[in-house]
Design a protein that fits this description.
By secondary structure, the protein is mostly helical. It is built from 6 helices and no strands. The model has no long low-confidence stretch (mean pLDDT 91).
Length: 125
């Protein structure tokens, strides 16, 4: 009896954690971004800006990167890339920021977006 209560309590902790993305899987999916973006120690701008600390970073905030006008306006309207905003953007970048020069169709699977965001989060500024 007592054991089943403990197991039930343990499962309550497991469930929310499972809803979080898997950073390891996200690292593998980041291959889709790596043609244009660098992340991690020493990351530099390429076709797209470096993405260290992007979760919580202001959109269009990297000095020396030539953002589109559309992304600069998006940055003026949104103080930070929250996880929710990133998830929306990554589903359909060219729809969410109309006129962006990020030529990427988007990630259709919610799970893949969550995994990539978990990976992005694991790379602080
Ligand atoms: C074909 C090249 C390309 C690919 C592939 C690409 N991006 Fe981008 N990304 C860009 C460019 C260019 C910009 C700048 C957009 C602008 O200024 O309109 C950008 C901007 C961004 C931004 C906003 C950065 C900021 O400083 O505000 C994020 C976040 C982002 N990309 C994430 C991703 C992720 C995650 C992936 C993979 C799922 C990805 N991108 C795939 C080219 C790309």
């Amino acid at each position: 009896m007592r054991r089943s209560v403990l197991i039930a309590a343990a499962m309550m902790f497991v469930v929310p954690a499972a809803a979080e993305g898997d950073a390891e899987k996200g690292k593998a999916s980041f291959a889709k971004c790596a043609a244009c973006h660098e992340i991690g120690p020493g990351a530099a701008n390429k076709i797209g800006p470096e993405l260290n600390g992007i979760v919580g970073r202001k959109p269009a905030a990297i000095d020396g990167f030539a953002y589109s006008k559309a992304m600069q306006e998006f940055g003026a309207a949104n103080p930070a890339w929250t996880e929710e905003l990133l998830a929306t953007y990554l589903e359909a970048p060219m729809k969410v920021v109309k006129g962006t020069k990020m030529a990427f169709a988007g990630l259709k699977k919610p799970e893949e977006r969550e995994n990539i965001i978990a990976y992005l989060k694991s790379n602080p500024q």
